[in-house]
Amino acid sequence: MTRTETRRPPYTAPARRTAGTRALWLLIGLLLLAAVMAASLAFGSRDVGWSDVWSALGGADASLEQAAVTKRVPRTVLAVVIGAALGLSGCVMQGVTRNPLADPGILGVNMGASLAVVTAVAFFGLSSPTGYVWVAIAGAALSALFVYTVGSLGRGGATPLKLALAGAATSAAFASLVSAVVLPRNDIAGSFRLWQIGGVGGASFDRIGQVLPFLLVGFAVCLLSGRALNSLALGDELAAGLGERVAFVRALAALGAVLLCGAATAVAGPIAFVGLVVPHTCRLLVGVDHRWLLPFSALLGASLLTAADVVGRVVARPSEIDVGILTALIGAPFFIYIVRRQKVRAL
Amino acid sequence: MSVPLVTRPPSTGSAAGRARRISRRRLVVLTLAVLVVAALAGTLMFGQTFYPPRDVIRVILGEQVPGASFTVGRLRLPRAVLAAAAGFSFGLAGVTFQTMLRNPLASPDIIGISSGASAVAAMAIVTLSLGRTEVSVFAVVAGLAVALLVYTLAFRDGVVGTRLILIGIGISAMLDSVTSYVLSQAAEWDLQEAMRWLTGSLNGADWDQALPTLAALAVLTPVLLARSRDLSAMQLGDDTASALGVRVERTRITVIVAAVGLIAVATAAAGPIAFVAFLSGPIAARVVGPGGSPLVPAGLVGSLLVLVADFCGQFAFGARYPVGVVTGVLGAPYLVYLIIRTNRTGGSL
């Protein structure tokens, strides 16, 4: 749409998409999201007819079906919001680190947020819900910084595989610390599975409301960083030549991504691989221009997580599979595929 | 760990130096063995109630001692034996992988082999309610399948360490989520049982678990030790090793099968006790120093780690931790430290 005014750099040539194609994909993406949201309201351990869904959305809760739908509304909203946050933050992380393997789960950021929350709850008596979010974001920021520092030590700086290895190791280390903190404390061990696996069950509008301000700031920062990420993709020198304050925009975009995944982890636990799969798929659909890529990642992330939640509820009736399990099953093969594609030179 | 016997040039090596290295190695192995026996004895005697060595020995000899026969004979002895055997299996198999792939991160618990064995064992027990022997067989098959899968996926113009490890980490993420799913489908959600299959635990250990582990150890340890010299030669690279007369492919296959067998049987009994396979090799290499095969020392270090960690997990803290949580907390900082050190020295992982 704005392509006539902005001259796109030549590196995007192979992935050029016309505005028409993009608009078409946008429409398809929106329809997909609407469809999975409807499915999320209708399907579950008990399937509900469309007429009941409709009247329940109008406020009726006379029958069991309508009550079920009413309970599924916050869960659906949470899945949409968390999925969008994770997809978007993965896209920004890939742009900021120029690393195809970046994802809040793989880089250990989500696990860092989990560890911070669990530690604060267990040792410092943290109980206010807003406090959770602050602590989670602080933990996410610290672990992002830590992993990036570790991954960029030594020769060659932060190559994709070095960074991914540092992240995976940090994540494994944090996960065992989380178990050590949580396990002996019966009062928080009940929600242990949430922190270890990640899920959107047990959502309520209260909990969504607590993280919403953080998420909104994160969404705004990330969505506005599209231009800057496009410049960064050219390399730091060229970006600086184009008038970009490289360190500043990189820090700002990273902060936005950390806000998103920290807040998402605070409410849904560490969900991995959404931020990896989604941006790569979106790049195939709409090209590498971040001004399109970022909103698309949010859109597709929301659809993916909601769909995973629906599948998890339908496949394992009458119980359910947490979304964290499903995203790992979908995402890990994708991760392996990208690792295999990396050239040995980059190791 | 990196200076195998074969590197010694035949003419110039000083006989005195070699003798010194060998005697140091013997001393270290002996000390480790004594420590393992002491830890075993300690876990048999100490606990909620103390039993003097005389009672413990009488129980082991099969006499009936009031109280001690149950506590020591039925509870502590199988647990201690399983701890020592599983620890030895993890340590030995871990260092075998680390030596063969020339990378401390390439231990079976990081590249997904333990996760595969654990996922299948959990499935066999929770979903199919199979007996111990079948579970061990399933676990071995799963471990081999994962090893093959990771190796095949990592193979692209040769196997590169970092790629193999990251692919293993990806596979193990999938397998762990399978384990989580299997556990969430279990009739009742039991946190302790879940912890066994996620991080490893010795709670409720009995002879049905300890004996298969001991049997696997008795069969497979000689196989690995017989190949230890070939394994050291292969550290110099496949070409050098075959020039030295090692049949590289055959050695590799034998060693992988034996090491995976050890890992899988021990995992089927005690779960994938976190980071023991990963930690034992480097610790053993540090205490033994250069100049010998690290296999036996690593096994002993593994035994010692599991025995001590299990004892601490039971009694040192206010709450009872499964052994895997204790070893996990020990191993986690070392894992991060290893990455930092490798990156800083610029070595290719």
From TrEMBL, chain A:
What topology does the record note for this protein and the membrane?
Multi-pass membrane protein
Q: Which GO terms describe its cellular component?
A: plasma membrane
Task: Spell out the molecular function terms from Gene Ontology.
Answer: transmembrane transporter activity
Compartments, as annotated in UniProt: Cell membrane
Transmembrane segment boundaries: 73-93, 105-126, 132-151, 163-183, 214-235, 247-272, 292-311, 323-340
Q: Which PANTHER family match?
A: FE(3+) DICITRATE TRANSPORT SYSTEM PERMEASE PROTEIN FECC-RELATED, FERRIC ENTEROBACTIN TRANSPORT SYSTEM PERMEASE PROTEIN
Q: Supply the alphabetized keyword list.
A: Cell membrane, Membrane, Transmembrane, Transmembrane helix, Transport
Identify this protein by name. Answer: Iron ABC transporter permease
Where, if anywhere, are coiled coils annotated? none
Q: Which family is this protein grouped under?
A: Belongs to the binding-protein-dependent transport system permease family. FecCD subfamily.
GO BP, sorted A to Z? siderophore-iron import into cell
* Family annotation (Pfam families): FecCD
The protein's matches in InterPro entries, at most eight in alphabetical order, are given as: ABC_BtuC-like, ABC_transptr_permease_BtuC
TrEMBL record, chain B:
Question: Which InterPro entries does UniProt cross-reference here?
Answer: ABC_BtuC-like, ABC_transptr_permease_BtuC
Molecular function GO labels: transmembrane transporter activity
* Membrane-spanning residues: 27-46, 80-98, 110-130, 136-155, 253-279, 291-309, 321-340
Give GO terms for biological process. siderophore-iron import into cell
- Show the GO cellular component annotation of the record: plasma membrane
Q: Which domain of life is it from?
A: Bacteria
The entry's localization annotation reads: Cell membrane
Write out the entry's keywords from A to Z: Cell membrane, Membrane, Transmembrane, Transmembrane helix, Transport
Q: Give the membrane topology.
A: Multi-pass membrane protein
What is the name of this protein?
Iron ABC transporter permease
Q: Which organism was this protein described from?
A: Streptomyces corynorhini
- Lineage of the species this protein comes from: Bacteria, Bacillati, Actinomycetota, Actinomycetes, Kitasatosporales
